[in-house]
UniProtKB/TrEMBL annotation:
This is Taurine---2-oxoglutarate transaminase. It comes from Halopenitus malekzadehii. It holds the Pfam family Aminotran_3. InterPro entries: Aminotrans_3, Aminotrans_3_PPA_site, PyrdxlP-dep_Trfase, PyrdxlP-dep_Trfase_major, PyrdxlP-dep_Trfase_small. GO terms for molecular function: pyridoxal phosphate binding; transaminase activity. Residues 1-26 are annotated as: Disordered. Belongs to the class-III pyridoxal-phosphate-dependent aminotransferase family. Keywords: Pyridoxal phosphate. GO terms for cellular component: cytosol. PANTHER family: AMINOTRANSFERASE, AMINOTRANSFERASE CLASS-III. The keyword Nucleus does not apply. It comes from the Archaea.
C-alpha cells in the first residue's frame, strides 16, 4: 500500500490502522501474549507463526527476559549512550563471544534500519569508497538510505520514491529461477555474477556488498551451498567488505546464533536487531572486525544516537542470548526439522504449492497457478492486487494461525518463535 493510499484510508476512516495480517483491517487489538501465542481483546488466541514481525524469537512471555528488564529498571533505566554502562559493556562482550570469531567490536543503534545505516557509513569510511551493492529481492530497512539499498520492488515502490538512490548498485539473487541452475552450479554462477558487477562498478569504488544470509521478508530463500564461500574469496580479492544483514536471520532463527556461522564464512560486519532482545525492547547494532572499529575510532568519525544501546535493551539482550544458548536454538532446530517435513507433505498435497524453501524456523511457501506455472499475482507488476495468498493469510487467521506475506511474488512466510512445540507445528 502506498503512502497516498494510507493517507486516503486514514482520511476515510480516522480509526483505520495499517494491519499486517488482516486484509480487511478490522481485527481486534492484541492485548496479551503466552509462549508462541498472542491473545486479542476479545479473548481469541492465535498461534503467532510469524513471531510478530520475525522478531519475538523467545516467545511472548519469557520470564528470564522480563525479569532482566525489570531488574535493570530498578537499578537505572537509562545511561547516556556516550558513557560507559556495565550492562551495555557486558552485552557487547557477550555478542563478540557468540558471533563469528573475527568480529570483536560492536556499535549499538535502535532499529535494524539504523544498524544498516551505521554499517554502510563505517564501510564507506573504512574503504574510502562510496558504493554499497545489494541484491534484488532483499529488505534492509525503511530509512532514507536503507530504503535505497532495499531491492524488493514492492517496498521500493512504497518507500523509495523519496529515498536516496545514489551509491547503491544491485546484483541478482542466487535463485534457480534467475540463473536456471541449481546447487553448486547456481552458487558459482550467482557469485561470479557478483564479481562481474563489482568489476564493472570499479572495485575501488565499492565499499561493501550487503546481503541477508537467508532472504527474510522477501521469501525465506537460503543461498546454495558454496555461494558465500565464493563471495568471501571475491571480496578478499577486491578488498570489498562483506556485510551480513542478520536482522531476521540472526539469534537462532536459522539454526545457529548467526546464520553466517552455518555457512562457515566470516563476514566483515553483521548488522542485527529484532531477535537480539526477542523484541522485548528495541535494540540493534553492528558487529565488526577490530581493524574497522579502530579505523573509525582513530578518525573520530564515530556518531551516536541517544537511545543507542539503551540499558533496558542490553539487559533484555543478555537474558535473551542466555535463553537462546541454553535451550531455544536447540529446540528451534528440532522444530525446524519437523516443520520442514510437514511443509514438504503439504506441498505434495496441493497442486498450488510449487515448492517450499527455508532454513531453521524461517520458511517460504511458494504458491503458483498450476495451470500457468506462474504466481497468481506478483508485486513486480501488480501493486495492490487481490490474490489467493492474501486470502490464505486471512483464512489462516480465522483458523487461529498468524502467518506472513513474502514479497514480491506473494509467498506465505513462516517464522515462529523458537519456543514452539510439536503440537504447535502440527496445528500450523
Ligand atoms: N534488515 C532486515 C533483513 C529486515 O528484515 C528488517 C526489518 O524487517 C530491517 C533490516 C529493518 O529493521 P527495522 O524494521 O528494525 O528498522
Amino acid at each position: 500500500m502506498s503512502s497516498d493510499q494510507s493517507a486516503q484510508q486514514l482520511a476515510d476512516d480516522p480509526d483505520w490502522i495499517p494491519h499486517w495480517y488482516d486484509p480487511d483491517g478490522d481485527s481486534a487489538p492484541i492485548t496479551h501474549g503466552e509462549g508462541a501465542r498472542v491473545i486479542d481483546d476479545q479473548g481469541e488466541s492465535y498461534l503467532d507463526f510469524i513471531a510478530s514481525l520475525y522478531c519475538v524469537n523467545a516467545g511472548h512471555d519469557n520470564q528470564a527476559i522480563i525479569d532482566a528488564v525489570k531488574t535493570q529498571l530498578d537499578r537505572i533505566p537509562y545511561v547516556s549512550s556516550g558513557k560507559e554502562n556495565d550492562t551495555r559493556t557486558k552485552l557487547a562482550r557477550r555478542l563478540a563471544e557468540v558471533s563469528p570469531e573475527p568480529l570483536t567490536d560492536v556499535v549499538f543503534s535502535v532499529s535494524g534500519s539504523e544498524a544498516n545505516e551505521l554499517a554502510v557509513q563505517y564501510a564507506r569510511e573504512y574503504r574510502d569508497a562510496s558504493k554499497v551493492l545489494t541484491r534484488w529481492q532483499s529488505y534492509h530497512g525503511s530509512t532514507y538510505g536503507t530504503a535505497a539499498l532495499t531491492a524488493d520492488p514492492s517496498t521500493r515502490n512504497n518507500v523509495n520514491s523519496h529515498a536516496a538512490v545514489t551509491g547503491s548498485g544491485k546484483f541478482l539473487p542466487p535463485l534457480p529461477s534467475v540463473f536456471d541452475a541449481e546447487g553448486e552450479e547456481l552458487a558459482e554462477q550467482a557469485a561470479n555474477h557478483v564479481e562481474y558487477v563489482i568489476r564493472n562498478e570499479g572495485p575501488d569504488s565499492v565499499a561493501a556488498i550487503l546481503m541477508e544470509p537467508v532472504a527474510g521478508s522477501s521469501g525465506a530463500y537460503p543461498a546454495p551451498e558454496g555461494y558465500f564461500e565464493r563471495l568471501r574469496e571475491i571480496c578478499d580479492e577486491y578488498g570489498v567488505l562483506l556485510i551480513a544483514d542478520e536482522v531476521i536471520a540472526g539469534f537462532g532463527r536459522c539454526g545457529e546464533m548467526f546464520a553466517m556461522q552455518d555457512e562457515g564464512v566470516d563476514p566483515d560486519m553483521i548488522s542485527f536487531a529484532k531477535g537480539v532482545t526477542s523484541a522485548y525492547v528495541p535494540l540493534a547494532g553492528v558487529l565488526m572486525r577490530k581493524e574497522i572499529a579502530d579505523d573509525i575510532r582513530e578518525d573520530g568519525t564515530d556518531v551516536g544516537q541517544t537511545f543507542a544501546g539503551h540499558p533496558l535493551g542490553c539487559a533484555a539482550g543478555l537474558a535473551a542470548i542466555d535463553e537462546y544458548e541454553d535451550h531455544l536454538i536447540e529446540n528451534g532446530r528440532e522444530m525446524g526439522a519437523l516443520l520442514e517435513e510437514g511443509l514438504h507433505d503439504l506441498a505434495d498435497s496441493y497442486d498450488e504449492i510449487s515448492h517450499v524453501h527455508g532454513k531453521g524456523l524461517l520458511w517460504g511457501i511458494v504458491v503458483e497457478n498450476p495451470e500457468t506455472g506462474e504466481p497468481f499475482a506478483n508485486s513486480w507488476v501488480d501493486d495492490d492486487v487481490d490474490n489467493p495468498v492474501s486470502e490464505v493469510l486471512g483464512e489462516a487467521k480465522d483458523r487461529g494461525v498468524l502467518v506472513g506475506l513474502g514479497r514480491p511474488d506473494y509467498q506465505i512466510t513462516l517464522s515462529p518463535p523458537l519456543c514452539i512445540d510439536e503440537d504447535d507445528v502440527e496445528e500450523a
